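fyi for ur records
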Amino acid sequence: MILRVIVGAAGQLGSAITAASARTGDRTLAVDPLLTEIPPGVDAVRADAGSPAFGDRLKTALAGASRCELILAGGRVPPLVRVPDATSHDLKAALDDVLTTFRALSMFAVSARSAAIGGSIVLISSVGARHPHRHMIGYDAARAGMESLARSFALEYAPHGITTRVLAVGPIAESATSRADGDLAEALIKLVPLGRYPRLDEVAEAAITVASAALDCANGHTITLDGGLTVQLRPADIERAPAQIGRSG
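which gave:
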């Protein structure tokens, strides 16, 4: 039996991943202090990951499991702020987010190792960890910190059968940030080579796949889901065509 733990299950993405996990028929444990609606067949912990309540429920849930998978879909999105206007409080909030992630990962990894059960840890990050947004210094710093944690956990716990990886996500079609694009939406979507943003259900299904044993050899690595947005040097609209470059010699 696979036990899949979804941390941050009350958020838009966390809810979608929880629902996708429930459809697999695997045992799903949803963790979030703000949980309200819970899909049928899903167990719930209405507490912060890293809290004693989560630790106690996790130990009980691990009993009888043949594999355990943690998908961390939480993370705060702070207010937009320019770098010159950022304060130490903004960066402290980012650090607090990383510490919360560390506590959740540590409790899961230690519990799984103590139970002698292998599995995986998947952190849902953002392409902003490596390709920064303008005016989102705190958010991008927190996501970059999460990716660093993932690499450290990958080295520490893979010898014990617990692998770690990151799913870095670009703009999501149904997200509040994408809906706020307004008149700029069409122009922004044109920047994506695929011609559209990933859908919420696609990201949720990808998270389940990335957590599976089939991806255990991606230990420590980041997998990007952005329609090709961040692989290009320049968008197609401003890329020079061959005829403009001319022939040399």
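The longest strand covers residues 119-126. thats all i got for now
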